Amino acid sequence: MNLLLVEDEPNVVSVVVRGLAAEGFNVSVAPDGNTGEKMALTNHFDLIILDIMLPGINGLELCKIIKKEKPNVPIIMLTALGSTENVVAGLDNGADDYLIKPFKFAELFARIRMLLRRYNGSVNPDQVINISDLQINLTAKNVKRGDQEITLTATEYRLLEFLAKNKSKILSRIDILENVWDIDFNLGTNVVDVYVNYLRKKIDKNSDQKLIHTAVGLGYVMKEA
Amino acid sequence: MNLLLVEDEPNVVSVVVRGLAAEGFNVSVAPDGNTGEKMALTNHFDLIILDIMLPGINGLELCKIIKKEKPNVPIIMLTALGSTENVVAGLDNGADDYLIKPFKFAELFARIRMLLRRYNGSVNPDQVINISDLQINLTAKNVKRGDQEITLTATEYRLLEFLAKNKSKILSRIDILENVWDIDFNLGTNVVDVYVNYLRKKIDKNSDQKLIHTAVGLGYVMKEA
DNA sequence: TTTGCCCTTGATGAATTTATTACTAGTTGA
DNA sequence: TCAACTAGTAATAAATTCATCAAGGGCAAA
Questions:
Q1: Is 0.70 topped by the overall pTM?
Q2: All domains of chain A, ordered by start, with CATH?
Q3: How far apart are CA B183 and CA B194, in angstroms?
Q4: Which of the nucleotides lies closest to A154 (Cα–C1')?
């Protein structure tokens, strides 16, 4: 489960991130509204926690923007004690819930569970693989590098998915042929090389950080380093 | 709108009843858990507000009982400051929301609106999907592109709705066949292609911005870009 | 029953994707 | 360093996959 926390106060961030990590969530943090917007729109999150008072775009605006683009991502707003008007505005902007600071962690966690339960009932969350700034949405079958959408052909996609699912494992050409092409004999071919080449052109060409690596004599690996 | 308030503290009752009446709600009050149970189960309410500390059955128990019998009635719990454990328990018992006393009336009202909106179209308008200048009214089942009304046949509409609900997801022909045509075998057909073609003629033909895209070898997607 | 619309099927050529080949570039180890 | 091997690339031929059309069947309303 990937969560996004948009919050500038370091102690809130620290408490929430540690608490949620302990519960098995993967938490990304944006320190201001603009970063939050970029992250929320370019990456996949299962739930977003927004502070209202933020540098850059404020939480209410951000809530509206996100809900417009991604109506199926639940949002929890955080607000300072006493600013009830904000709460009302937040809920009217599409927020699903809110908490008043200071809040207890158990309370936040209970609300997160409630929202995930509610949303998952109807639409199940997308399955997503992230490797560095490469994002593969297995459910939607689309691929992004940074915020650049990448169009792949069917075979290219199958190859990428196989490499990504086996991140950091060296895969021999035979492994790849068996899993992506469904052939376990006929080794007089270099399709794999050719398709790895195609993938590199689409995925690694415009980036300094190469993700597809050659293990000479062994095969190929997909990894960050 | 009929609301039920189960609460024994007279001043809370007074504030809430007067406030909600002013907003046009019809509020019934039960002063203890047993009365609350009887009223909740025998009458129709659109929403129930439950104090946790109550004479008779306590609010948590009552919540569980009501949710078992009438899972579609939203419930807001009221709890005293500092008893976070109760909150967690309440949400796990099926409560939809909670408020910590003392609370501001505006906050209660915002949460009531949120819940009513979520549970039932009664407070909110029709459910509408907008993709670029295409507008699909799921309630009225009509479709507009720009301000041009578009007439679709039943199957065309079902297909469009499915594509739109899965905006940006690549949907395989099989996905589409299963969800729009209810068949999961018989794959020797090209109905999907033909109907996508029909839809394109009605929706994309007269617009520069195409919304239905083909992902060769994978299926079709509906998206802006 | 007939009419008219809606749905489905099959066929066609066009477009795109895939596989192969042949060649060049790069790497390894004696 | 040089051969021998391994990997990368471009061009092209083969194979899929798609868009579109036209025709026939089914069903409901007149």
A1: no
A2: 2-122 (3.40.50.2300), 128-222 (1.10.10.10)
A3: 16
A4: C17
- Sort residue B162 into left (φ over 0), alpha (ψ -120 to 50) or beta: alpha
Residue A22: CB atoms within 10 Å? 10
Which residues in chain A have their CB less than 8 angstroms from residue B113's CB? 91
pLDDT at residue A32, rounded to an integer: 92
Could you identify the residue written with the tokens 């169009």? Answer: A151
Q: Which residues is B27 bridged to in the sheet?
A: B3
Q: Cβ(A16)–Cβ(A30) under 8 Å?
A: no
The DSSP line for B152-182 is --HHHHHHHHHHHHTTT--B-HHHHIIIII-
B 7-46: CB within 7 Å of strand C: none
CA A153/CA A158 separation, integer angstroms: 9
- Residue-level pLDDT at B122: 39
Q: Is the CB of B190 under 7 A from strand C?
A: yes
Could you tell me the CA-to-CA distances from B66 to B5, B74, B110 in Å, in that order?
A: 13, 10, 23
Closest partner residue to B169 (CB to CB) among A84, A140, A151 is A140
For chain B, residues with pLDDT lower than 70 are 81-87, 90, 118-127, 183-187
Within 8 A by CB and 6+ apart from A214, the residues are A220
- Average pLDDT on A122-149 reads 81
Q: Is A164 helix (H, G, I), strand (E, B) or coil?
A: helix
User: Tokens representing B112?
Assistant: 């009531």
Residue A121 has pLDDT above 50, yes or no: no
- The Cα A99–Cα A77 span in angstroms is 6
